[in-house]
Design brief:
Blueprint lengths: L6 E5 L4 H12 L4 E5 L10 H6 L7 E4 L2 E4 L1 H11 L10 H18 L5 H11 L1 H23 L14 H16 L8 H11 L2 H4 L12
Parallel strand pairs: 1-2
Antiparallel strand pairs: 1-3, 3-4
Helix pairs in contact: 1-3, 1-7, 4-6, 4-7, 5-6, 7-8
The structure holds glutathione.
């Protein structure tokens, strides 16, 4: 297939990982076909989807005959293949900061509070333990991110341009605030970054409620 084939994103409206990719695709001005994988109905375990991602997670991006899963890899792929509106700055220090902040969200926050883990905790220890777990892991990550970014942030995480760190941070902040009732006023830098992202039409078009599979 040619490199101009239509991009296809396997997504679920409530997935924060898929949200990152939706935001990034919009920032790059790339049109894509949205294919819903209903995580609540277990569609991620279907044999067809398993062929795309044996881990049974969204998001998966298909670009012609290229299949990329994992939002971190997808963002780096998109950035190399479609260089317009770069998701990483050229300055090595700011680039490293973006990768570090993104990876904190990707590796040290989201995997600890994904729905399957929270269900396990709630089933075994009850809803109060579940909320304590969410709060502890979310605040630990946000404290590290606040410290990391406070001297570099401007309108966005590492200055006046929106980059990969923002793409990871904004959905994670939204989920923390709206789904888990985390008080973001304790993290003024992160809160400011989130507010700036909320003003962007590219972010607004990526929010869960505006996705074709949203169940409101
Ligand atoms: N590191 C992966 C994580 C993907 C992931 O955890 N996806 C979640 C939704 S945010 C999922 O598909 N969960 C389905 C399940 O737990 O069965 C990424 O960034 O894409």
């Amino acid at each position: 297939m040619s490199s101009s084939s239509k991009l296809v994103l396997y997504s679920y409206w409530q997935s924060s990982c898929a949200w990152r990719v939706r935001f990034a695709l919009n920032l790059k001005g790339l049109a894509y076909e949205y294919r819903s994988v209903n995580l609540r109905k277990g569609e991620q375990f279907s044999p067809e989807f398993k062929k795309l991602n044996p881990l049974c997670f969204v998001p998966v991006l298909v670009d012609g005959d290229i299949v990329v899963s994992d939002s971190f890899a997808i963002l780096l792929y998109l950035n190399e293949k479609y260089p317009q509106n770069a998701l990483l700055p050229s300055d090595p220090q700011l680039r490293a900061l973006n990768l570090q902040a993104s990876n904190i969200v990707s590796s040290s926050m989201q995997p600890l509070i994904m729905q399957s883990i929270l269900k396990y905790i709630e089933d075994k220890f009850g809803p109060a333990e579940r909320q304590l777990w969410v709060r502890h892991n979310t605040e630990k990550g946000f404290q590290a991110l606040e410290k990391l970014l406070k001297d570099y942030a401007g309108t966005y995480a590492t200055g006046e341009e929106v980059y990969m760190a923002d793409v990871f941070l904004a959905p994670q902040t939204a989920v923390a605030e709206m789904r888990f009732n985390i008080d973001m006023s304790k993290f003024p830098t992160l809160n400011g970054i989130y507010k700036s992202c909320k003003d962007l039409p590219e972010f607004q078009a990526s929010v869960p409620e505006r996705q074709p599979d949203a169940e409101l």
